[in-house]
Design brief:
single chain, alpha+beta, Glutaredoxin, Glutathione S-transferase Yfyf (Class Pi), Chain A, domain 2
Length: 219
């Protein structure tokens, strides 16, 4: 099978989800690094008309939207499978993937992580503490709901990892060194244990911001 090319900004949690699944599948892939300045450029917009990352390129097939990419990889690289066979577990996986995109990222990670990490460290912008404070009530709801859905299971959709885990883990991991980590994660020991379990996986260790930055330099 031909190599997979992943167009992504180093540090993107969405790009990390795709790279982690490729690592889990032991698939041959190449990172085509996209700089934040180039994400709205004509070259990248030809691949993704909405100017986002990641984009997957595979044997002439171009695909964007992280959930679509993850499901595609799980279909064309059948083992190991990260889609539960049980209908309810698969539905839970789908639900949590949407929670990640619509509630964990939108209005929470894209505010707090941006204000704490991306803005100051990448773009040189000052941190807007008021924006963070405004995002925290929703953040508490999201983290509490993820903890509730996880329950006593090892993983978000059951006792084995699913695509939901690989989508959510990079988003949660962005909060680790932030002041908001303890307020958000402290009440949820099960979610803390899940995060530790996920981040210990070789696929997540191989796709940290630092590791992906080195991939970009080596390309």
């Amino acid at each position: 099978m031909s190599i997979f090319i992943v167009h992504s900004v180093p540090g993107s949690p969405f790009g990390r989800s795709v790279l982690a699944v490729l690592e889990e599948k032991r698939a041959a892939y190449r990172l085509a690094a996209v700089s934040p300045a180039a994400i709205k450029s004509g070259g990248h917009l030809a691949l993704h008309p909405f100017g986002r990352v990641p984009v997957l390129e595979h044997d002439g097939f171009i695909l964007y939207e992280t959930q679509a990419i993850l499901r595609y990889l799980d279909r064309v690289l059948a083992t190991p499978s990260f889609t539960p066979k049980d209908a309810r577990a698969a539905a839970r996986m789908d639900q949590i993937m949407n929670v990640s995109d619509w509630y964990l990222f939108q209005g929470v990670a894209n505010v707090i992580a941006f204000q704490r990490v991306i803005g100051p460290k990448v773009l040189g912008l000052p941190t807007d503490e008021a924006a963070i404070a405004a995002a925290m009530p929703k953040a508490h709801v999201v983290f509490a709901e993820l903890g509730r859905l996880l329950g006593e299971q090892n993983y978000l959709a059951g006792d084995s990892a699913s695509l939901a885990d690989f989508l959510v883990a990079p988003q949660i991991d962005f909060f680790v060194d932030l002041p908001e980590w303890e307020p958000l994660m402290g009440p949820h020991a099960n979610l803390q244990n899940w995060h530790a379990r996920m981040i210990a996986r070789p696929s997540l260790r191989a796709t940290t911001w630092e590791a992906v930055a080195k991939m970009a330099q080596a390309a």
